[in-house]
Structure formats: C-alpha cells, structure tokens
Amino acid sequence: MSAVRIRKATIADAGMIADLSRSTFYDAFAKDNTKENMDHFMNTVFTKEALMQQVLNNEGIFLLAYDGDDVVGYVRMREENEEQIIVGADAIEIARIYSVQSALGKGVGPALMQACIDIAVELKKSVIWLGVWEKNPRAIAFYQKWGFEKFGQHIFPIGNDPQTDWLMKKALT
C-alpha cells in the first residue's frame, strides 16, 4: 500500500460514503451478530438513504482515505449528537471511523485518526471522543494507543440486541 491520502468529502461523495458505511459496518460486525439483528439494523437505521442524508444535510465532517485511486476508509466527525454525552466541554465526536477489511493493518486507521485530531485542534476543541463496542478489543487497543481513556458507556442496539459501547475520550489541551 502506498501512503494513505486523506481528503474531506463533499456532497458529491454522499452515495459512495453511504455504500462504504454500510459495507464496512457489515464487514466489521456481521460475524458477531445474528443475521436477523444485522438485517434489521441495516434496513432500518443504517439505510443508504439515511446515510446519504447525513452527508447531504452537512451532519458532520466526513473524511475519505485513499490508497492511490481506491477508497480504503472513512470518518464521520460531529460536534453535536442527540445524546449530549459530553455536556459543557468543547468536544468533538468521532462518530464513525472505518477501514475496508483488505486495508486493515496498513496505516489507514492511523492516517484517519491523525486527521481527526488535526481537525479537532484546528477547531479549538479540548476533547475528542468516541464510542466503541466493548467486545472489539482490536479497536479498543487502537484507541488506547492514541491516548483515549474510557469514561463511561452507553447502549448501542443492533436489532433487538442492546450492546454496550465504551465511551472513550482524549484531552487535546
């Protein structure tokens, strides 16, 4: 793999981001969930139309990772979310950070994470945070390596399975 290149996504990328969101999420979690729960989540919460609307309605900052001409990962960052997990802090969330399976371990995650931190600093945020499934040790170790620490947890339902996500944050100042 050549050097990973990151760029901000545009409205023109909405369809590609939606497809990438769906495929990377499915690839990451289908093996650990029932077909029924995954199908329900993918067909109600994580629809292509809903994901495209997030981009088209400017609901966050979207970044794309490239290896040459191939898109190999993406990020969605957002300054606000409906749960108000960190209240009163000048915070930004990494709502999604994914790599395609064939690019895992090839520098996509670090390139995307550095871009997220750079954007958070540029926006003068004091905290960057995310949620990660408690049963995803590879991701947890990755975030810990970047200085994220657990500060709480919340439920993330996949179909009728109420799964627990760890909430992790990193101070930037």
Topology:
Blueprint: E1 5-8, H1 14-29, H2 35-44, H3 48-56, E2 61-67, E3 70-78, E4 91-99, H4 108-122, E5 127-133, H5 137-145, E6 149-158, E7 161-171
Parallel strand pairs: 4-5
Antiparallel strand pairs: 1-2, 2-3, 3-4, 5-7, 6-7
What can you see in these coordinates?
This protein has a seven-stranded mixed β-sheet, with helices on both faces. The chain contains five helices and seven strands. It is globular and about 45 Å long. The chain has 173 residues and is of the alpha+beta class. The longest helix has 16 residues, at 14-29. It has helices at residues 14-29, 35-44, 48-56, 108-122, 137-145, and strands at residues 5-8, 61-67, 70-78, 91-99, 127-133, 149-158, 161-171. It has a single domain, classed as Gcn5-related N-acetyltransferase (GNAT) (Aminopeptidase, 3-Layer(aba) Sandwich), CATH 3.40.630. 34% of the residues lie in helices and 33% in strands.
Overall geometry? globular
In total, how many beta strands? 7
- Would you identify the CATH H-level superfamily? Gcn5-related N-acetyltransferase (GNAT)
- Give the CA-CA distance, first to last residue: 33 Å
Query: Reading side by side through the largest sheet, how are the strands ordered?
Result: 1-2-3-4-5-7-6
How does the helix and strand content classify structurally? alpha+beta
Unreliable parts: none
Count of domains? 1
Named at the architecture level, the CATH assignment is: 3-Layer(aba) Sandwich
Question: Whole-number average pLDDT?
Answer: 91
CATH class: Alpha Beta
SSE topology string: EHHHEEEHEHEE
Number of DSSP helices? 5
Helix content: 25-40%
Quaternary organisation of the protein chains: single chain
Rg over C-alpha atoms, rounded to the nearest angstrom: 15 Å
The description of the largest β-sheet is: 7 strands, mixed
Strand residue percentage = 25-35%
CATH topology: Aminopeptidase
